[in-house]
User: Which sequence fits this backbone?
């Protein structure tokens, strides 16, 4: 799964979970030749746990078996066709379509996994932003966006969803870039001679920033004697010395070296 973005459903704001539950209950009761839930029972089963619903069924319909067994059977039925069967409410499809329209790669996880599981799952997959939306958010026409890089959460008006998501994605990208850059800088040392490079690599280690004559011979010698290979030659060149770190001839480039594994 290659998703940039996930929208989570909470409490059936996006998915018609009530309608689905009613159909599921009817389907289960039909196994016993029962007509299904009356409007009063539908009302009563709102917000019940699966186990409580099973108890209700036993009480109302005299179903055979324990509440645990019945709850298990309904759960199994639900797993069977949850993914294909549950109709999305227009709001969810609309939000997703809007993000896609704006050129943002987005996907929705409407599985019945817990919120915590989803958060961990998509964090692991490297999804940079997570959109969470609940009934109260829907009322206020907002959603909550959570950044993977900082864990920071921001509430965003649904009207500006596309723009905000783009800004946040850029910001996450910049943040990662800055962090990588700082990491490189923190672990980089300017070296003037081959001996310097050797000592640095044997000690603290990291990236050696040196001047280089541009000759392959020197590159090979660096690998042989200091155990490093060229890592990158930045487009933005700096002059950290006059001569090649290896042969001492006039230098042409600035280059980074790192340990070859
Ligand atoms: Zn050289």
Assistant:
């Amino acid at each position: 799964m290659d998703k940039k973005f996930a929208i989570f459903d909470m409490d059936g704001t996006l998915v018609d979970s009530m309608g689905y539950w009613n159909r599921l209950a009817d389907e289960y009761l039909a196994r016993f030749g029962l007509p299904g839930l009356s409007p009063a029972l539908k009302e009563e089963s709102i917000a019940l746990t699966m186990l409580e619903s099973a108890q209700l069924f036993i009480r109302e319909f005299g179903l055979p078996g324990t509440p645990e067994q019945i709850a298990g059977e309904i759960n199994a039925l639900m797993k069977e066709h949850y993914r294909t069967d549950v109709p999305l409410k227009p709001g969810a499809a609309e939000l997703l379509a809007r993000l896609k329209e704006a050129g943002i790669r987005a996907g929705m996880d409407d599985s019945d996994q817990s919120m915590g599981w989803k958060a961990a799952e998509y964090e692991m997959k490297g999804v940079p932003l997570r959109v969470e939306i609940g009934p109260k958010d829907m009322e206020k026409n907002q959603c909550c966006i959570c950044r993977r890089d900082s864990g920071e959460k921001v509430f965003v008006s649904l009207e500006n969803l596309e723009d905000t998501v783009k800004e946040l994605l850029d910001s996450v990208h910049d943040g990662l870039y800055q962090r990588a850059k700082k990491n490189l800088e923190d672990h980089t040392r300017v070296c003037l001679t081959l001996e310097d490079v050797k000592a640095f690599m044997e000690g603290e280690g990291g990236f050696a920033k040196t001047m280089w004559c541009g000759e392959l011979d020197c590159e090979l010698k660096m690998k042989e004697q200091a155990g490093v290979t060229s890592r990158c030659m930045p487009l933005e060149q700096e002059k950290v010395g006059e001569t090649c770190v290896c042969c001492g001839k006039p230098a042409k480039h600035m280059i980074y070296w790192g340990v070859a594994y």
